[in-house]
């Protein structure tokens, strides 16, 4: 009896230890956001191949005057042109969002995260204002240690994110390649000559650390030949770094998180055309990339980058109805590694809705979710797959209207 009592006590202590450990792990993520009962209930009741809408999202964070000027405190980030991607931050169990727009809110370098249980958009980094026009707004840009940056130490090149955005959970950092045409902006504030002489960050790769609310320039002084717009950036755990693939020379480069150096590790060509979208799928250990456009239909299709073989292969050539049509302006893709698939949402009129890609079979299927009554919108839908809750989270224009979709339980 005494022995059984001791065993029971040890088991309870062990359980309490695990509970406190988990609690501690959760509370390390700042800010702490309280889960909402209605969201948890919908997550629990959501069936396979079903889409349901959540209540309007909450918007929170530390809003400066610039953020308030563009009503970010009221509306959330709002979709930005060519900014559909939302990398999953596995260590935070939240998704990240950023990107500069062509129009309002212009060239802001704000950083957001979305937390599903609390249904909250949270502004982590309040923006500097690098508005596209007038160019004089760039008076907040400086060149320090050969790096163009804001006076607060963030990127000054708030480009579209395109597919040039990823997250490294080992670093605990969002990685953003902020390549953008900035000559006229620098000229407008008298910085162009100094930039041309002192710039030592020709490929502007940046890390933003949400846990520290800090920025760091990466790969300074040692870069690929040139950064291209509308390129691919993807963290691959097996390579302990992030690959970059762009249209400039169609080669794949690796940035090492350990050395902070670039290497032309994979000289073979053959990757996707530009304006692609991509995601890394952990079960297959492959990057899946998609780009379909009328201007390059011969190259359009689905591509795999094998982390082991370190090479690109084309898995599916585009045919109408056989796979989604679109690019980084109107599609978003995210991995559901539990089921060995990638889920894509297309806002293009030809392919509107959810699609699933079976990696092993190399096959696309158009989905017909229960409860799906959405219609195409002018700016677009963006989203991500949340592996912690086994749902794809979909936003209308990166705003308060939010839906969740479950492919399989």
Spell out the key features of this protein.
single chain; 409 residues; Neuraminidase; five-stranded mixed beta sheet; four-stranded antiparallel beta sheet; 6 helices; 14% helix
Report what the structure shows.
The chain is an alpha+beta fold. It is built from six helices and 27 strands. The protein has one domain: Neuraminidase (6 Propeller), CATH 2.120.10. A five-stranded mixed beta sheet has the order 2-6-5-4-3. Strands 1-27-26-25 form a four-stranded antiparallel beta sheet, with no helix packed on it. A four-stranded antiparallel beta sheet has the order 9-10-11-12, with no helix packed on it. The N terminus is likely disordered.
Quick rundown:
With 409 residues, the chain is of the alpha+beta class. The chain has helices at residues 2-27, 37-45, 65-69, 72-75, 183-188, 192-198, and strands at 50-53, 58-61, 88-89, 94-98, 111-115, 120-125, 141-144, 147-150, 165-168, 173-177, 205-209, 214-218, 232-236, 241-245, 252-256, 261-266, 277-281, 286-291, 301-306, 311-317, 331-336, 341-346, 353-358, 363-366, 381-386, 391-396, 402-406.
Quaternary status: single chain
Shape: globular
Largest sheet, in brief, is: 5 strands, mixed
Question: How many structural domains?
Answer: 1
The pLDDT mean sits at 90
The percentage helix is 10-25%
Secondary structure tally: strands = 27
């Amino acid at each position: 009896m005494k022995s059984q009592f001791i065993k029971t006590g040890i088991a309870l202590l062990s359980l309490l230890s695990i509970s406190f450990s988990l609690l501690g792990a959760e509370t390390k993520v700042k800010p702490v956001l309280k889960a909402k009962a209605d969201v948890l209930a919908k997550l629990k009741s959501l069936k396979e191949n079903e889409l349901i809408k959540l209540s309007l999202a909450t918007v929170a964070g530390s809003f400066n005057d610039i953020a308030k000027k563009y009503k970010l405190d009221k509306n959330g980030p709002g979709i930005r042109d060519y900014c559909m991607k939302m990398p999953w931050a596995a260590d935070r169990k939240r998704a990240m969002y950023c990107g500069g727009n062509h129009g309002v809110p212009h060239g802001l370098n704000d950083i957001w995260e979305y937390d599903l249980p609390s249904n909250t958009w949270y502004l982590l980094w309040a923006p500097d204002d690098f508005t596209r026009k007038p160019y004089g707004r760039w008076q907040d840009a400086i060149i320090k240690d050969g790096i163009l940056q804001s006076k607060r130490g963030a990127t000054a090149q708030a480009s579209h994110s395109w597919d040039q955005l990823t997250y490294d959970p080992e670093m605990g950092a969002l990685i953003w390649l902020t390549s953008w045409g900035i000559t006229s902006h620098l000229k407008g504030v008298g910085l162009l000559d100094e930039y041309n002489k002192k710039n030592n960050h020709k490929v502007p790769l940046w890390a933003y650390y949400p846990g520290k609310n800090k920025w760091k320039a990466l790969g300074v002084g040692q870069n690929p030949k040139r950064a291209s717009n509308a390129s691919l950036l993807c963290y691959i755990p097996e390579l302990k770094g992030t690959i970059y693939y762009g249209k400039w020379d169609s080669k794949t480069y690796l940035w090492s998180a350990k050395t902070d150096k670039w290497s032309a590790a994979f000289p073979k060509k053959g990757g996707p055309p530009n304006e692609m979208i991509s995601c890394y799928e952990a079960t297959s250990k492959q990057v899946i990339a998609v780009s379909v456009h009328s201007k390059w239909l011969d190259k359009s299709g689905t591509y795999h980058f094998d982390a082991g073989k370190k090479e690109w292969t084309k898995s599916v050539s585009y045919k109408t109805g056989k796979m989604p049509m679109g690019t980084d302006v109107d599609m978003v893709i995210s991995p559901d590694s539990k089921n060995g698939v990638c889920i894509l949402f297309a806002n293009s009129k030809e392919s509107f809705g959810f699609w699933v890609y079976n990696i092993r079979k190399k096959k696309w299927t158009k989905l017909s979710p229960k409860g799906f009554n959405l219609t195409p919108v002018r700016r677009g839908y963006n989203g991500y797959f949340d592996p912690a809750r086994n749902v794809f989270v979909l936003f209308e224009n990166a705003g308060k209207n939010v839906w969740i979709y479950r492919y399989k339980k």
